[in-house]
Specification:
Blueprint (H helix, E strand, L loop, with lengths): L6 H36 L5 H4 L2 H12 L3 H32 L1 H16 L6 H8 L3 H25 L3 H9 L4 H12 L1 H25 L5 H10 L3 H36 L1
Helix pairs in contact: 3-12, 4-5, 4-7, 4-10, 4-11, 5-7, 6-7, 7-10, 10-11, 10-12, 11-12
């Protein structure tokens, strides 16, 4: 006898079913892309020397795993995570400070827009001279690229918090600190995690740009080296690994968001 599901069970079952369908379609698209890529290179329609092929990339991956690929991946991941965390912490602190001082926020707004529009990678030589030709300059590059975006997104979210609710809290005698901790920050959790998702890619771009300039290890270093000796298989392999790193960090942020939202919903 078929079991009758409650409305809540039907809703949760529908969510799980949709997630499985999305994952299935994503895997089919990825498999089709790999198959077409391999077929085009095998038929000579696409030059395998320039664009490589899945089979050649797989062979290169096996060779590099037996060498020092793990070391290069670890270096890039550590630099990215460090730059990502520093960018988020500093960006959150600056955004909070700007919310507590509307005057400072008004003064800083045009300068933040200008700083965000500047090509940070063009400042690479200046950063290297200031921070030194090493890991520190790579991390500074990652922070420089992601910091301003974090400040702009969070400060914009803080300022756009429901004005009527803030006025109501002030009428009950709540001070600015209580308003921020009880309403402004909790209501902007989605904005915070959205900025984290954006910063993943920005931090990775900053790290790779820094590794292009000064690093002697890391996936960015591998890409530069492989390009210089025309080993396109190594270039494409490194780029694909970077994609997996970005996906893993995105998944970690999304998982943290789910935990935080569950805790907030449980507390309320």
């Amino acid at each position: 006898m078929k079991k009758t599901l409650s409305p809540r069970e039907e809703y949760l079952y529908g969510i799980r079913k949709r997630k499985r369908a999305v994952l299935t379609v994503q895997l089919i698209i990825a498999a089709a892309f790999i198959f077409v890529w391999e077929w085009l290179t095998a038929k000579g329609i696409v030059d395998p020397f320039i664009f490589s092929s899945p089979s050649r990339i797989a062979d290169m991956f096996v060779i590099m795993v037996r060498s020092d690929l793990g070391w290069h991946i670890m270096i890039t991941v550590l630099e990215t995570v460090t730059g990502f965390l520093l960018g988020v912490i500093l960006g959150l602190a600056i955004a909070i400070g700007l919310w507590f001082s509307p005057f400072a926020n008004s003064v800083a707004a045009p300068f933040l827009v200008i700083l965000n529009s500047l090509p940070k990678i063009a400042l690479g030589p200046v950063i290297i001279v200031w921070a030194g030709a090493g890991v520190s300059s790579i991390i500074v590059m990652a922070v420089a690229i992601s910091l301003i975006v974090t400040v702009l997104e969070l400060s914009g979210g803080f300022v756009s918090t429901d004005k009527k609710l803030l006025i109501t809290l002030r009428s009950f005698g709540a001070d600015r600190k209580q308003i921020f901790t009880k309403v402004v920050l909790p209501s902007n959790i989605p904005v915070l995690f959205q900025s984290l998702k954006v910063n993943i890619g920005l931090s990775l771009v900053g790290v790779i740009a820094g590794e292009f300039l000064v690093s002697k290890a890391g996936l960015g270093y591998l890409i530069v080296y492989a390009g210089q000796v025309f080993r396109m298989d190594l270039v494409m392999m490194s780029v694909i690994i970077l994609g997996f790193i970005a996906f893993a960090m995105y998944w970690a942020v999304n998982f943290a968001r789910q935990i935080v939202e569950k805790k907030i919903n449980h507390d309320t």
